[in-house]
Design goal:
The chain is an all-beta fold. It contains no helices and eleven strands. Strand 5 and strand 6 form a beta hairpin.
């Protein structure tokens, strides 16, 4: 099992910056990817950015060049630096860890949602 605790977020004006952090605990050795998803009202939960084991990155096209994901391996923490924020970035942001559970089945673990509101 993996537990995730997120922090950061809040209210910012368009063009501003915010930083989200997520710390993983539990069986972190089985994590194969760590990142952030977001869900706006009435919409599906979509990938924002993800770090894959081995160093590969995945970013949503809408955030490329503005958001940067980085991992602090010593603290099992992933940070999402969000710059040049736009009103359309407004959503609940969810930390995600993808890994193998006790049955060796790939499983998604979720942290609590963190609200990000960007005013125009």
């Amino acid at each position: 099992q993996v537990q995730l605790v997120g922090s950061g977020g809040g209210l910012v004006q368009a063009g501003g910056s915010l930083r989200l952090s997520c710390t993983a605990s539990g069986d972190t050795s089985k994590i194969v990817a760590l990142g952030w998803y977001r869900q706006a009202p009435g919409k599906e939960r979509d990938l924002v950015a993800r770090l894959n084991r081995g160093g590969g990155f995945d970013y949503a096209d809408t955030v490329k060049g503005r958001f940067t994901i980085a991992r602090d391996y010593d603290r099992n923490t992933v940070h999402l630096q969000m710059n040049s924020l736009k009103p359309e970035d407004t959503a609940y942001y969810y930390c995600n860890a993808r890994g193998y559970n006790e049955f060796n089945v790939v499983t998604d673990y979720w942290g609590q949602g963190t609200p990000v509101t960007v005013s125009s």
